[in-house]
Each structure stands twice: as C-alpha cells, then as structure tokens.
Specification:
elongated; mainly alpha; about 110 residues; single chain
Length: about 110
C-alpha cells in the first residue's frame, strides 16, 4: 500500500511538472493558448492528489491537515477549471492565472 502511495506521489509530481512547465513555455508564445500538456497536467494533479489523500487516510501512517488539503483542493479545482476553459477560449489570460495558482499551490504544500 505504501508503494502504491509513493507511485501516485511520483505521478503527482510529473503532473505538476507538465502543468507548470507547459504553462510557462506557452506564456512565451504570442498566442498564449492552453495546450493539452497543461490541461492533462491539471487533471493529473487533481486526480492524483485525491488518490494520495485517500491512500494516506487508508494507511493511517500520517495525520493529515485537512485545512491544508481543503485549500489545495480548492486551488487545484480552480486550476483545472481555468485549464478546461482556456483550452477552448484562445487569447485570454488563463495561462498567467494557471502559473500563479500553481506556484501558490506548491507554496501551500511546502510551507504550511
């Protein structure tokens, strides 16, 4: 069970890399459109975060800070919504907000 949790943590980090890296790379382009890499990174972050939370609760190895998880969930849902909307509407400031909220989400995870 612990190995499964660690596998999802790796997938969570890969999703964050795809989300942040794809968004920053697309910020430098003229069109600034939300790519499928950003969209799937946002989806991966949300889904793997929920799975990790469930696995940690099931294993009972760590005590979870539910307020921190709630804040991260709200930010992740917002990022995923912006990515979904931005992938359909071109030329909007969605990427800037995605980058900012991704950095905020990482800061919440690391600093709180």
């Amino acid at each position: 069970m612990v190995l499964l949790k660690e596998l999802f943590v790796v997938l969570h980090f890969l999703g964050m890399g795809a989300l942040f890296g794809g968004a920053v790379a697309n910020l430098t382009k003229k069109s600034q459109e939300v790519s499928s890499l950003v969209l799937w990174g946002a989806r991966a972050q949300l889904i793997t975060g929920l799975i990790i939370t469930g696995l940690v609760e099931g294993i009972g190895e760590d005590e979870l800070d539910m307020s921190k998880i709630g804040i991260k969930l709200l930010i992740s849902l917002t990022i995923a919504a912006l990515a979904e909307i931005g992938s359909r509407k071109k030329g909007s400031p969605w990427l800037t907000w995605i980058v900012v909220l991704t950095v905020v989400n990482v800061c919440v995870a690391a600093l709180l």
